[in-house]
Structure prediction request, 748 residues.
Amino acid sequence: MIDASKTIVVTAIGVVSPYGAGLAALQDGMLAGRCCLASGAELYPGFHGSVAQVLDLPPLLDGHHYSRTDRLATLAARDAVGSLMGSNLLRQSGIVMASTVAGLSEIDPEIARDPAEWYRHGGLSRAASYSVSRVAAAVGEQLGIQGPACTVSVACASGAMAIALAANMLLDDAAPMVLAGGSDALCPFTLSGFNSLQALDPELCRPFDQNRKGLNIGEGAALLALETLEHATRRGAPVLAVLRGWAMNNDASHPTAPHKEGAGLAACIGNALEMAACGVDEVGYVNAHGTGTPLNDIAETHAYENAFANRSTPIPVSSTKSYFGHCLGAAGALEAAITILAMRYGALFPTLRLSEPIESARVDWLKDAVRRVPLPLAMSVSAGFGGSNAALVFGEMQP
Amino acid sequence: MNPKFPVLTGFGSVTPYGPLTGLITAPAPQPRPITAWTTPGLRRAFLVEPFRPAEIVPGVKTRRLDRLSGWALVAASLALRDAGIDLNQVDRSRVAVLFATGFGCVELTEAFFQSAATNGWAGTDPITFPETLGNAPAAHVALFHQLRGPNLTISSKSFAAESAMLQAASLLRHGQADMAIVLAGDTLTQAVYEWYEAAHRLAPACFNHDPVSSAAGFIPGEGVVAMVLEKPGRELSRPYAALGPGCWAAGGDVRANVLQLLDGVRPDFTFCAGNGAPCAATPVTCSARAIVGEDTAIFPAQPIAAGMGEASALFHLLLALSKRPGPGQALLLGTSANGGFAALRMEIQ
Prediction:
């Protein structure tokens, strides 16, 4: 017997991805196996990698300067709330956003030479959008949300952690509904940073392939509307999925590299499954972190081998970063949305360009074509620089 | 004490008072002239004096880190020391780290921009980049102390520290951790200071040697404060306070929300976690008086902490507790210019 006041459900999803605005665009693009990655040479002189961009992003017209991350977030939030705009429920709701880039995209390197001069020439309002807290605040202001608002910044695990924190807030009765997700824009700062670390694949990324060379960066935003089942039932909201379990932890092993055996991630998966009160055989699919970097993908494979060691069949795994790159702080939220899509349509998305998978007897690498199977329970897994891990377990709403 | 409330058992800080364990008993320092960069005249701020972290915390290495990460390492270590915690006796997978910040590792972010300005985006520094990430301080705390619980960095317009405290208490309440180190802080850099100046946010005392006054504006500050929050019941713990329920919001009826939070409890003390000047007429002090009435002792926001912006509440709380208000019910209250608020109930030991 479930306790509806302690069961967290997803009642809406809003997305802006390189496929365009809306969940349907994401779904159609991925079902068609379309890759959004293309040359990003115009982003700065000397950059030769591939990126996935959101085209034709509209401005927010209220006289303030909004960062590209703010605009992506706001568009996705509007997509999520739909007809709730202007409602008391939305006004009382909370918002937990995730971002790593935030307003970095608005800052010019000239700020480092002479900040005061840069501010005098238009930089003052641009710099006001710098703080990551601005992302949640911008969405709140645009949507009239007056509940608790914060932004989490935990590198590439941020998006999933925002969803986990929102779930905790609902258990605490901090708000009747919480919008949770992530947003990050492409910007030279992050591209340059990953390029300097030689973490970028100069061609199209190949997550979990033995010949993988690195990641590609994308941009986008996704938000889930979370509420308790009791609240959703009372207002007659459709339940898209149940957030059955969530967990967060840290490897505490290296500032940037994951634990070689994926010990932290395996423990995180185990904690999330324990909260979900489900066995390893019940999980039908894992949407992996799967960046395509040599270190991440092998560590992550070990994590699945350990976490699902007692499974009777190999665990189906794919990385959907192969479609539109790594969206950094938004990745965990976008992948949570994709995991729910996979459940609702019984469609396991393959990893694109996976021709020679990492050898593993315990992992069933999804490749080549969409696999159609009923999917009552699935996971989304995230990790990031600094050793942080997050795992989300989604289930179907049982009648 | 309410047996269900998490308890605050240790403080550590790196602030203009210096690196300190526990409560702060020294007299408040004055703002000091900025010398780290060339200023167009006298410019003052509440600055952290340089020190060697390894002399405070043996074994800690901070050479390549943003100052914020270095201070977080020191403050967290001092807070654990103050709480009397032997981590060898603790399940480190059950210890969370939550870091509240407004700007994150802005010092190395500026250095990265500098490398881009000098060499172009194709010639930036790979050593610096990972240390520019906002979660680097919390990650270094976890790595140094081998803390494998949830590790979060949180920013919230005006209320990052309060938000981190509430999220930490939530992790404990829901069994996702047994102990949390909550940190809040920011560093002051040329770009940050000059933004405040260009935006006309600075108090007159930033530009002259006058005493800190209640005039409009604020004096920027920097530092990191850490506290240890744990489930009640550990033997030998000597808690400063128990953390009760709390709430924060971007808008709404502040008075109605705080009264609902208080649930009939009349606080003996109200600690103001404001971002304005220290006088009795600051908005948060007025809000506190309007909400809790005349019978409560109000601890106004302290100017030395006010300049830390959205990460300042933990510093304000430490300064208020350092005045040893005595046992009783307390309210930590912050308000923002745009109608937001944060409130936490506490039981002071």
Observations:
- Chain B touches chain A through 71 residues (CB under 8 Å).
- The first strand of chain B starts at residue 7 and ends at 15.
